[in-house]
Amino acid sequence: MFAFNRVRDLPRSVFLIGLISLLNDAASDMIYPLVPLYLASVLMAGPQALGLIEGIAEATASLLKLVSGVLTDRLQRTRPWIVCGYALAGFGRPLLAFASSWPWVLLIRFADRIGKGLRTSPRDALLAASVSPADRGLAFGFHRAMDNAGAVVGPLLAAALLGLGYELRTVFLCSLLPALLTLMLTLRLDEPELPRPAQHRSFDWRFGQLPAPLRRYLLALALFTLGNSSNMFLLLRARELGLGEATVPLLWATVSLVATLASTPLSALSDHIDRRRLLLAGWIAYAVFYLVLGRLGGALSSGWLFALFASYGLFLAATEGVEKALVADLAERERIGTAYGWFNLVAGAMLLPASLLFGVLWQHLGSGSAFAFSAACALGGAVLLARDLRPAAAA
């Protein structure tokens, strides 16, 4: 069972990466919940433009996650990719304050996601190399908890600034401070000891060369992610259901707070049971949440909306860290960076069709159809995952 004293025994690198993620997400989530409002009220762009922006940005990041993961294994280096990735995102995001049309927002989000693509797979490889297999769920859960804590701090800061009368552009510029602190901490990271490939084996990064259980898992993840469009649509739906503009950041802060509190114990639970079972429950819960949110009609009280979105935070807590810990279970140790590259590519590349389809369905058929499509994809992914449900391979 989960015990908090296990957290104290995690190595320094796990704590440092967690603090880096907290600060980076504080900077990112000062901006993230406000982008739909900025597009709609300032730049006069609709859901279809939002879907295009988020889809292209995330798909670009996904391709670079594979490249950086492969290079991590080849060069046995993680730190340069992590430093450059956080720097590019941190200095790019505040430029949204100067965007005069939605294509400029697309360009800035594109640069931000390039940074994410460079850092994510090397960072995941660093985390996996820093702990024993018995603590993978705990380490990735703790990282996600810190990441989500930043997503609590960021919206609260944004809400406070908006409440004091500052414009959206001013909030964007203020995100530069936590970004600078993030960069300073990345320079203190040490290189992990990555497993070296056997000399008699040639290096092969192709999908077909991944272990079969990992390939099956990634195919189930691909179908689930086809219905997992940008979370910005959730905020847009909350606004459509009557939530006030100044309350939108607080709603997302609630989601992140629930995920922060629950990520570490739920992910640590996966160190003692088959991780797929926890993922299966999470994906089914996701489908139910989307079906309910899509079928709601008219204005809804803020209390019910906050309660509903809190359940989404539980879904995030039960799946985000576990998904990544399962990759390390199923991957070959000497190709851990490549395995995370493929995981991040599959999870992110599907966001382009997911966000585009969701935006088009919403704009032409209504939000109910869009949310129903996402729920169907989640259930399909759960079926594929359940068919392969057996004890995860030991690393």
From TrEMBL:
GO terms for molecular function: transmembrane transporter activity. One of its GO terms (cellular component) is membrane. It comes from the Bacteria. The keyword Manganese does not apply. It is a multi-pass membrane protein. Residues 13-393 form the Major facilitator superfamily (MFS) profile domain. The chain crosses the membrane at residues 145-164, 217-236, 248-266, 278-297, 303-322, 342-362, 368-386. Keywords: Membrane, Transmembrane, Transmembrane helix. InterPro entries: MFS, MFS_dom, MFS_trans_sf, Tet-R_TetA/multi-R_MdtG-like. CDD domains: MFS_MJ1317_like. This is MFS-type transporter involved in bile tolerance (Atg22 family). It comes from Plasticicumulans acidivorans.
